[in-house]
Amino acid sequence: MKLIECPRDAMQGLTHFIPTATKTAYLNTLLGVGFDTLDFGSFVSPKAIPQLQDTAEVLAGLDLSQTRTKLLAIVANLRGAETALQHPEIQYLGFPLSVSETFQRRNTNKTIAEALADVASMHELCGKQSRTLVVYLSMGFGNPYGDPWSPEVVADFTRQLANLGIRIVALSDTIGASTAATITPLFAELIPAFPAIEFGAHLHSTPDSWREKVEAAYQAGCRRFDGAIGGIGGCPMAADVLTGNMATENLLAFALENGLETGLDLDAFAQAQRMAREQVFH
């Protein structure tokens, strides 16, 4: 079971600014846990996400010498991708491509067609530098705007991404709309249909809905899961009330209950939990 920790997603919607030194210390602690990937920051307009305006400074303070964890940064346009690619420590660039036209405009100020053109350009840039573009299909389980959604719509988006050569696609539950009834058929259809793509689950949940969501995705073949310690955060562009991220504690509990290997150092994880609670998100 591949776990991706997303402190960027946990931090981005907070109204108080977390000092750069605190962010850096927390991320260095997370690097010792053994996650596959750390979604650590973003190269977007400070006006849009002021919390992450110091991503380059934070990156400069990270100790990558003793970790197996790879770094992922979110970008919202080609300029952000070009900036991120100036940092060789970043292996993955993440781009939110929305299944909802309304949310694509709201999130990146682009149409879906324009965003897909950006995806093609970003993928080409990444390939030239031996990096990988991860595409998040936001609003992947439905949207509150009345825009078209169905498994067929998501499959069509995935087909376009596969034709571009994208190799990692994370179905993203931007507003917590997913249920087992929507999660299972999506992954069950997409995973066998696109064997060259690694599918991930970026699920948002409430404390009483997480298990059915994780079980549904795992049983349908998903092995890549995004989480955030404490279940903190969500997308500030999506709704007035944020539905929290999938708590990493719950993903770890699911893995332990089912005898699944995660590669995490549990002592280091407990240390990161304490730091999150006492210093970062207090």
From TrEMBL:
<dbReference type="GO" id="GO:0016829">
    <property type="term" value="F:lyase activity"/>
</dbReference>
<comment type="similarity">
    <text>Belongs to the HMG-CoA lyase family.</text>
</comment>
<dbReference type="InterPro" id="IPR043594">
    <property type="entry name" value="HMGL"/>
</dbReference>
<dbReference type="Pfam" id="PF00682">
    <property type="entry name" value="HMGL-like"/>
</dbReference>
<dbReference type="InterPro" id="IPR013785">
    <property type="entry name" value="Aldolase_TIM"/>
</dbReference>
<dbReference type="InterPro" id="IPR000891">
    <property type="entry name" value="PYR_CT"/>
</dbReference>
<keyword id="KW-0456">Lyase</keyword>
<feature type="domain" description="Pyruvate carboxyltransferase">
    <location>
        <begin position="1"/>
        <end position="270"/>
    </location>
</feature>
<protein>
    <submittedName>
        <fullName>Hydroxymethylglutaryl-CoA lyase</fullName>
    </submittedName>
</protein>
<keyword id="KW-0479">Metal-binding</keyword>
